[in-house]
């Protein structure tokens, strides 16, 4: 088994897929800082919640990371890997040439759908998964939990480490 000890990761993402990618990097030994937007990572507001009112999803996806409230240039300058949900990926790659910039977005960074919002349900619909599940004439279905996000984060993790 390999280790990512000594690798510094800054997670600028706001999606489950980016949180999962950086969680996997942390699980393999990387030092990960999750930069949270004002109000905290959106996963902190996802149910279900534990008895103390904390999101169980956030506790799972954000495990093994230190969280910081705002991006600081020094954090990015020290990063070996920057994980983002599309936040100026090209600009980050230009200004941090020694870092791997991993952008995980619903529809890519270019093309006619790049600015469209997306989530697990839109991924299920665009991939064809929703068309073979559920009942005719009923609303589309998505997989349970965060299946598309977990798959995207796992593929992104594999891309970063290979």
Structure notes:
The chain is an alpha/beta fold. The longest helix is centred in the C-terminal third of the chain and has 15 residues, at 147-161. It has six helices and five strands. Helix 1 (16-27) crosses helix 6. It has a single domain, classed as Rossmann fold, CATH 3.40.50.10540.
Please describe the topology of this protein.
Elements (H helix, E strand, L loop, with lengths): L7 E4 L4 H12 L3 E5 L20 H6 L4 E3 L4 H5 L3 E4 L4 H7 L4 E4 L16 H8 L19 H15 L1
Parallel strand pairs: 1-2, 1-4, 2-3, 4-5
Silhouette: globular
The CATH class designation is Alpha Beta
Specify the CATH homologous superfamily. Crotonobetainyl-coa:carnitine coa-transferase, domain 1
Rounded Rg: 16 Å
E-strand count: 5
Portion in helices: 25-40%
The major beta sheet can be summarized as:
5 strands, parallel
Strand content: 5-15%
The tally of helices reads 6
The unreliable regions are: none
State the end-to-end CA separation.
14 Å
CATH topology: Rossmann fold
**Domain module tally:** 1
Order of helices and strands: EHEHEHEHEHH
In the sheet with the most strands, the strands line up as 3-2-1-4-5
Overall structural class, as computed from helix and strand content, comes to alpha/beta
CATH architecture: 3-Layer(aba) Sandwich
* Average pLDDT reading: 90
Structure characteristics:
Rossmann fold; five-stranded parallel β-sheet; alpha/beta; single chain; 162 residues
Outline:
This protein is an alpha/beta fold and 162 residues long. The protein has helices spanning 16-27, 56-61, 73-77, 89-95, 120-127, 147-161; strands spanning 8-11, 31-35, 66-68, 81-84, 100-103.
């Amino acid at each position: 088994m390999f280790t990512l000890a000594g690798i510094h990761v800054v997670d600028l993402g706001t999606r489950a897929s980016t949180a999962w990618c950086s969680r996997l990097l942390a699980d393999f030994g990387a030092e990960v800082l999750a930069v949270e937007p004002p109000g905290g990572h959106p996963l902190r507001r996802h149910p279900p919640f534990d008895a103390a009112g904390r999101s169980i999803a956030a506790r799972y996806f954000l495990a093994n990371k230190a969280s910081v409230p705002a991006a600081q240039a020094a954090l990015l300058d020290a990063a070996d890997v920057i994980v983002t949900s599309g936040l100026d990926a090209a600009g980050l790659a230009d200004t941090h040439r020694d870092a791997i910039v991993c952008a995980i977005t619903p529809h890519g960074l270019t093309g006619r759908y790049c600015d469209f919002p997306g989530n697990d349900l839109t991924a299920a619909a665009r991939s064809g998964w929703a068309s073979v599940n559920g009942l005719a004439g009923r609303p589309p279905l998505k997989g349970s939990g965060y299946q598309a996000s977990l798959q995207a984060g796992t593929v992104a993790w594999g891309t970063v480490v290979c």
